[in-house]
Design a protein that fits this description.
By secondary structure, the protein is α/β, with parallel strands linked by helices. The chain has twelve helices and ten strands. The protein has a single domain, classed as TIM Barrel, CATH 3.20.20.70. The two termini are about 25 Å apart. Bound molecules: 2-phosphoglycolic acid.
Length: about 270
């Protein structure tokens, strides 16, 4: 549970611990994964100002799981799952299989899954249900394309993704979900939303949660930003009041880059 801390005005402000996740996508052999994780552990294995999650490809989950087993503050995530518990689904991986490897988080509805593998909001909803049933924490991705941003339809697009992806969940379930706002035009392009643009969008998402669930839910749900997050821009983005973490692709493939993002974004208290 998030501790409640009184603000200067006496009202109660919810503390949301920042969550930084590395999405390795289809990169790293098992041997390469081992080297990367060892380097990350060496640098931030005791850093606990943020929740840190590593999402390697399925083939490296077991290796990374073993390496992370004595480490408290870095957790294991997967990049996808199937919504069925088992059966004749060649090439697919179930929530139970992930749990068996001590996976704690799972990315759902990443824009690359939507774009290249035909996933839609209904798929995202089914996968999120499967993850929650297995007590995996879903990281549910939403985001608009460049024409949608430029055509000023991004609010409508995000609303549709939120409505479809989060349909039918209770308030309790919602607070176990992490949202990742990833503008498609910023993923892997080197273009980032400006901190003001990202903050405005996160505020919009939080208002949507307040309107469609409750104020308590909107205050508790963590919303990550993703899209070309780098050591140089992480602090400014993560200093925004409604940005609660980052989903990092390219820059998470390099230990120095990833650990610098974690440290820049969440400096240790002095
Ligand atoms: P990127 O990817 O950091 O390489 O832009 C982010 C993501 O796809 O999660």
């Amino acid at each position: 549970m998030s501790p409640r801390t009184p603000t200067a005005t006496g009202s109660v402000k919810i503390y949301r611990k920042k969550i930084i996740a590395g999405n390795w996508k289809m990169n790293k052999t098992t041997g390469e994964a081992k080297v990367l994780v060892e380097d990350i552990i060496r640098d931030i294995g005791k850093f606990d100002e943020a929740e840190i999650v590593l999402c390697p490809p399925f083939t490296s989950l077991e290796t990374v799981s073993t390496l992370l087993s004595p480490i408290n503050n870095i957790r294991l995530g997967a990049q996808n799952l199937n919504d069925k518990p088992s059966g004749a689904f060649t090439g697919e991986i179930s929530a139970g299989m992930l749990k068996d490897l001590y996976v704690r988080y799972v990315i759902i509805g990443h824009s690359e899954r939507r774009q290249f593998f035909g996933e839609d909001d209904a798929t995202v909803n089914r996968k999120t249900i499967a993850a929650l049933h297995a007590e995996l924490r879903p990281i549910v991705c939403i985001g608009e394309t460049l024409p949608q941003r430029e055509g000023n339809t991004w609010k409508k697009v995000l609303e549709t993704q939120l409505k479809g992806g989060l349909a039918g969940f209770t308030e309790k379930e919602l607070t176990d979900i992490i949202l990742a706002y990833e503008p498609v035009w910023a993923i892997g392009t080197g273009k980032t939303a400006t901190p003001a643009q990202a903050e405005e969008t996160h505020q919009f998402i939080r208002h949507w949660l307040a309107k469609n669930f409750s104020m308590a839910v909107s205050e508790r749900v963590r919303i990550q930003y993703g899209g070309s997050v780098k050591p140089e821009n992480a602090a400014e983005l993560l200093n925004q009041p409604n940005i609660d973490g980052a989903l990092v692709g390219g820059a998470s493939l390099d230990a120095r880059g990833f650990t610098a993002i974690v440290k820049n974004a969440c400096p240790s208290p002095r």
